[in-house]
Amino acid sequence: MRRDEGKRGDVKTKEPIEASSGNVFADLGLKNPEELLAKAELVQRISDIIAERKLTQGRAAKLLGIDQPKVSALQRGRLDGFSLDRLFRFLNALGRDVEISIRPARDAEDAETRVV
């Protein structure tokens, strides 16, 4: 049976596809979507550094000054309890500089927050 066929052989109707805004948190209608996206991107960088350095969660926890379950939560994308400032400090503890750049927006009504 082909993937696009139902059990009875009839072709399934396709659901309409909606283009993403580029921010899944905004698409889901969550509060503070730009902050959530920035946190998610920072957490991805932190997780990449931990993996690159082949650190166990226990060793990463010691470097970050938190317990191992918090490292696990962080790596699983549980962003509650982790402020942007705290994530910046984690990056510093992992030997990374954090630079914040403020500049005029291309369109004043569409100013945005990004992790570069």
Write a structural description.
The chain is an all-alpha fold. The protein has a domain at 24-101: 434 Repressor (Amino-terminal Domain), CATH 1.10.260. Helices cover 43% and strands 0% of the residues. The chain has helices at residues 24-27, 33-52, 57-64, 68-75, 84-93. Helix 2 packs parallel to helix 5 and helix 3 packs across helix 4 (68-75). The chain starts with 23 loop residues before the first helix and ends in a 23-residue tail after the last helix. The relative contact order is 0.13.
Please give the number of β-strands. Answer: 0
Biggest pleated sheet? none
Shape: globular
Distance between the termini: 45 Å
Note the total helix count: 5
Helix content: 40-55%
CATH topology of one domain, what is it called? 434 Repressor (Amino-terminal Domain)
Order of helices and strands: HHHHH
- What amount of the residues lies in strands? under 5%
Structural class: mainly alpha
- Poorly predicted spans: none
Q: pLDDT average, as an integer? A: 88
CATH superfamily of one domain: lambda repressor-like DNA-binding domains
Q: Which CATH first-tier class of one domain would you pick?
A: Mainly Alpha
Radius of gyration: 20 Å
CATH architecture of one domain: Orthogonal Bundle
List the helices and strands and how they pair.
Blueprint: H1 24-27, H2 33-52, H3 57-64, H4 68-75, H5 84-93
Helix pairs in contact: 2-5, 3-4
Would you summarize the structure shown here?
By secondary structure, the chain is mainly α.
List keywords for this structure.
116 residues, globular, mainly alpha, 5 helices, 434 Repressor (Amino-terminal Domain), single chain
